[in-house]
Amino acid sequence: MFDRITFAPQILGGRACIRGMRIPVSVIVRQIANGATWEEVLADYPDLEREDIEQSLGYAAWLTTDEMHPA
Length: 71
Prior knowledge:
- 42% of the residues lie in helices and 6% in strands.
- The protein has helices at residues 25-33, 38-44, 50-63; strands at residues 5-6, 17-18.
- A two-stranded antiparallel sheet has the order 1-2.
């Protein structure tokens, strides 16, 4: 479902990151929420791809669902 979102204990303590890089999903979502354009985010993080932003936003939306998902 979110093949670009990774979790690894050795990378930022297991926080949701993009493709194993040290770019947390939260940073991308926060930038968009604060009014940054996709182009600005991509310029700030040259290793990102548009699909990374799409999945970051999709993952954030998924986290807000009312459904419970056991760990």
